[in-house]
Design goal:
Number of strands: 6
Largest sheet: 6 strands, antiparallel
Number of helices: 4
Strand order of the largest sheet: 4-3-2-1-5-6
Strand content: 25-35%
Structural class: alpha+beta
């Protein structure tokens, strides 16, 4: 799986990206050439959903849209110099339950191990906390 990087606006970017809600998580794949703007998805919790209170939860929702290339207004081409990388999302898989391989194939499909994303902070922790409001 490609690495999903997590960003916040840089000091310069806060002015140019004023359309982003404060505390928004911005995500993009790390496979685009450095000279290109990032095809980024973001989540700011505009509708005050109770399951999107933390910066990490917002990053995971935005990453789901990114991964599925979901059509949304919460997507922009953003020049890299307007962003600060603050972390990445890593894929975690739940282990298979005991005796999983002994199940018939038609039942095994129903009990596929789940994959989850975990946010890992890598850079600019203080700026991320200030941007996220915590």
């Amino acid at each position: 799986m490609k690495t999903i990087k997590v960003y916040i606006p840089s000091d310069q970017g806060r002015t140019e990206l004023a359309y982003l809600l404060p505390g928004s998580a911005i995500v993009a794949y790390d496979d685009q050439p450095p000279s290109q703007a990032l095809d980024a998805y973001y989540e700011g919790n505009a509708y005050q959903c109770s399951n999107l209170q933390s910066f990490e939860e917002k990053a995971v929702v935005a990453a789901g849209r990114l991964h599925s290339r979901y059509p949304t207004i919460a997507r922009s081409l953003i020049p890299r110099d307007l962003l600060l990388e603050v972390g990445e999302l890593q894929m975690l898989s739940d282990p298979e339950p005991p005796n999983f391989r002994m199940l018939p194939p038609h039942l095994r499909k129903q009990f596929k191990p789940r994959e989850r994303l975990r946010f890992v902070a890598t850079h600019h922790a203080q700026q991320r906390k200030e941007w996220a409001g915590n």
